[in-house]
Structures are given as C-alpha cells and as structure tokens.
Amino acid sequence: MLKLVLPFPISVNSMYSNHGRRRIKSKRYRLWRAKALEAITEQYTGLPLSCDIRLQIALSVPCKRRRDLDNHAKGLQDVLTGTIIVDDCLIRELHMNWLPQSKGGYAELTITKYK
After folding, report:
1. Cβ contact 62:101 at 8 Å
2. CA distance between the termini of the chain
3. Residue 115 confidence (pLDDT)
4. Separation CA 109–CA 36 (nearest Å)
5. Which residues of the chain fall short of a pLDDT of 70?
6. Distance CA 6, CA 38 (A)
7. 99, 58 Cβ separation under 8 angstroms
C-alpha cells in the first residue's frame, strides 16, 4: 500500500485552453502539475508500478464552492503516470470521496494492488 498527499487538483474544465485550433495545457494546470510532481518525488522514490492497481482518492476542498467530484480525477491520474504507475490504464478500480474542507485543500491518494 502506498499513500500520497498531493496539492488539491484543478478541475478537468481548467486543464486545457484553446489557442486558435490548438488545445494546450493551461498555465494553471502546468503550475499544479509541477507542484504535484514535486510532492510525489518527496514521498516516493521507487520505480513506476507495472501491475494493476486500485486507486482511492479523497479530496479536501480549499473553499465552500460547489464542485463535481469526478472532474478532479483526470489530473491526478495523469500525474501518477510515469512516476507512480507505468500507465493510467493500470488503474482497474477507482474510488473517490470528499473529506472535510481544509485551508489550501489537498488530495490524499491510496494505491493498493488490484486483486
């Protein structure tokens, strides 16, 4: 079992911006991703896992604004790819829930081997 605490993820709605006909990663997403990668390297030094996994995501929101829980999964799954797991297709089971609000917010990830 592996537990990680990452910065509160931005919504999938804010991950990309359009520039003409191109779709690129938004500045907010690039900043969040850099912080998340830094947090991962502080907490995990092993090789990426290549087995099927179960991912539990618990999110503590930074404010009372209404949010859709599932809109925050994509960025977290993408940042795990290449660092914690070889590919996000290895996530065979995904569970998400809200935690109480906290200043700044955070994401608590629990990764276990899929059975």
Report:
1. yes
2. 13
3. 87
4. 12
5. none
6. 9
7. yes
Closest alpha carbon to 82 in 58, 43, 39, 49 = 49
pTM over the 0.90 mark: yes
Kindly report the backbone phi and psi dihedral angles of residue 45, in degrees, each rounded to the nearest multiple of 5, phi listed first.
-120, 0
> Burial level of 2, CB count in 10 A (0-12/13-18/19+)?
middle
Rounded CA-CA distance 31/50 in Å is 27
**72 φ, ψ (degrees, to nearest 5):** -105, 0
Q: Say how far apart CA 80 and CA 91 lie, in whole Å.
A: 10
Per-residue pLDDT, 90 = 97
* Residue labelled with tokens 């995990």: 44
